[in-house]
Amino acid sequence: MPRPIQAFISQSALAHNLDVVRRSLDHAAQAAGGSAPSIWAVIKANAYGHGIEAAVAGFSAAQGLAMLDLSEAVRCREAGWGGPILLLEGFFEPADLDIVDRYHLAVTVHTREQFDMLARARLSRRIDIMLKLNTGMNRLGFSPAAYASAHARARQLHDQGVLGSIGKMTHFACADGAQGVAEQLQAFNDATRALPGPVSVCNSAATLRYPEIAVARDHQPHWVRPGICLYGASPFADVPAGSLGLRPAMSLRSQLIGVQHLAAGAEVGYGAIFRADRPMRVGVVACGYADGYPRHAPTGTPVVVGGVRTRLVGRVSMDMLMVDLDPVPAAEVGTPVSLWGQDGPAVDEVAAAAGTIGYELLCALAPRVPVTHGP
Ligand SMILES: *Cc1c(COP(=O)(O)O)cnc(C)c1O
C-alpha cells in the first residue's frame, strides 16, 4: 500500500475560478462601456503544481493558455488544446522555433537575440508575438527608449512574412501592494500608445484589483494573464482567497500514522524544539518536506485533523510532521488529515506561517505525491 498522502485536484474549482475572473471582467467592461478582455490562463510550472492536463480540462473556457516550457505547450496540444498558446519567456535557442512553428505557439519577444533567431528561422507559417516592454520591474523586456525600434524590427519581420500579429505586453511588479500599477501603466501607455496590436498587462493581482485597465476601448484585442487566482489562492497578502469567491483547486491530504502520549516536559521531533508544557497527545502525519510541505512551517501552523482545526508542533521532517491532538480527542491512527485545500486551512495560511506565499507551496508539490482528479 502506498503512503496515505494524496493531492486531490478539483476540475470544477479550476473552472469556477476562471468563471470568477470572467464575471469580474465582464462587470468592469459593462461599467466602463468597453469590451471585456480575453483570458490567457497561466499554467506555467505544471499548472502551479496542478498538472497540465488537469488545467487544460479545467480551463477549457479560457481563450488561451500561457506558460514557459515548450514541453508543457506540446502537452497542451497533445491534450487537445487547439486555441492560442503564449510562451511567456519566448524561446531560448533556434531549435525552439521548430517547435513553436510546428505546434503553432505565440511567443513573447524581449531581446535582440530573439529577433536575430527569428530572422534566420525557416518557418512554415507566421509567428504571432507579444513584444515585451520593461516598464520598471527590470526583469524582462525592452526599455521604453528601445521599444520603438524593437517594434520597427518586428514590423520589418512581419513584412518579410516571418511574424503575424505584433502585440504589446508588460508585467507589473506591485499590482498586489501599496505601490500599485499607476507608474508602470503610464510608462506602458506612453511607449505603446501610437502602436497598434493586441495588448496584455494584467496578472492575477492586477486583473482582480484593476479590472478596468484590461477593458478594451481601442478596438484592439486585450488579454489578461491570471495565474494564481485560477488555482484558488490569493495574489494579495491581506485578502483571503475565499473572500474573493475563489475555491481551492488543490487539496493536500494525508492520515495519522502514529499517536504519541507525551508527559509534561517531553519534547517532539528533530532538534527537540517543541516541549509539552502538560501531558498531551501528538499525532504523526505522513507528510513532510519531501512531499512539498514547507520545512519552515513553525509550531502553530494550522492543520485540520479529523475535521478539527489544530496546530503543527515541532520541526517538519522529510516524511512526517507532528500535530497537537488535544482539540481532537477522537483522533487515532488512520484519522484523515488535511494539510491545505477544500477541507483544510487555506494554502495561503500555511504559506504565511512558513514565511512564503501560496504560489511556492502549490508549485512545490513533490512528484512522489500521488495525484487524484475529480469534480
Ligand atoms: C506568472 C506570470 C503571470 C501570472 O501571475 P499570477 O500572479 O500567478 O497571476 C502573468 N504574466 C507573466 C509574464 C507571468 O510570468
Explain this structure.
The structure is a single chain. The chain is of the alpha/beta class. It folds into two domains: 11-232, Alanine racemase (TIM Barrel), CATH 3.20.20.10; 250-373, Lyase, Ornithine Decarboxylase, Chain A, domain 1 (Beta Barrel). 28% of the residues lie in helices and 23% in strands. The protein contains eleven helices and 18 strands. The chain has helices spanning 11-32, 44-48, 52-58, 70-78, 96-102, 112-120, 144-159, 182-192, 204-209, 347-353, 358-363; strands at residues 6-10, 38-42, 64-67, 85-87, 106-109, 127-132, 163-169, 199-202, 222-224, 250-262, 267-268, 274-275, 280-285, 302-305, 308-313, 321-324, 336-340, 371-374. The chain has an eight-stranded parallel β-barrel with strand order 2-3-4-5-6-7-8-9, surrounded by four helices. A six-stranded antiparallel beta barrel has the order 10-13-16-15-14-17. Strands 11-12 form a two-stranded antiparallel ribbon. Helix 6 packs parallel to helix 7 (144-159) and helix 7 (144-159) crosses helix 8. It starts with 5 loop residues before the first strand and ends with a strand. Bound molecules: pyridoxal-5'-phosphate. Pyridoxal-5'-phosphate binds at residues 42, 44, 88, 171, 203-205, 225-228, 235. Pyridoxal-5'-phosphate binds next to helix 9.
